[in-house]
Amino acid sequence: MFENYQRKKAAKKKEKTSMVVHGRTSSRRCTIPRDQVCAHENLFQNYFSNHPLYTLSDFRNRFRMGRELFIRIMEQIVHFDDYFKQKPDATGKLGFSLQVKMTAVMRMLACGTAADLNDDYLKIAETTSFEAYKRFFHAVNNGFIR
């Protein structure tokens, strides 16, 4: 088990490339281009549109709650924490939508999905999934639902 951890740690070190900047060593992470807009559109068409691909029963099975409750939680949490609002980054590119962040959190809660598995379908990085997860729990602990 410890060997597996060491292998993962070594792989992460390989991902980083070191460079010297004005006598200091800094590291730059390799970035994976993710299409946030496409991920949102796909998620919206599958679950949240007027005629979604998956039925309400499918939604309930996947998220362990009805779609109306999911939407109500989304609407409440965005007022509690600005992190969940979709905002542009420093380059002007839109970040992940509220639906994508909340879906990542709910998949982790309902199915016990690991944060890094959200990347396949939602195109959201492990760190972003985990940050949304932590902020969701912070909101719940501080009583965000009115």
Describe the structure.
The protein has 146 residues and is mainly α. The chain has one domain (36-141). It has helices at 2-15, 36-48, 56-63, 67-80, 98-111, 118-122, 126-141, and strands spanning 17-21, 24-28. A two-stranded antiparallel ribbon has the order 1-2. Strand 1 (17-21) and strand 2 form a beta hairpin. Helix 5 (98-111) packs across helix 7 (126-141). Residues 16-22 have low confidence and may be disordered.
What are its keywords?
58% helix; 146 residues; mainly alpha; 7 helices
Write the layout of secondary structure elements.
Layout: H1 2-15, E1 17-21, E2 24-28, H2 36-48, H3 56-63, H4 67-80, H5 98-111, H6 118-122, H7 126-141
Helix pairs in contact: 5-7
Beta-strand content estimate? 5-15%
Task: Give the N-to-C terminal Cα separation.
Answer: 44 Å
How do the strands line up in the largest sheet?
A: 1-2
The largest sheet is: 2 strands, antiparallel
- Inertia-based shape: globular
Low-confidence stretches: 16-22
Question: Radius of gyration in whole Å, from Cα?
Answer: 18 Å
Give the ordered list of helices and strands: HEEHHHHHH
Helical residue percent band: 55-70%
Number of strands: 2
User: If you average the pLDDT, what whole number results?
Assistant: 84
Structural class: mainly alpha
* Tally of individual helices: 7
What's the number of domains? Answer: 1
Region (Disordered): 1-22
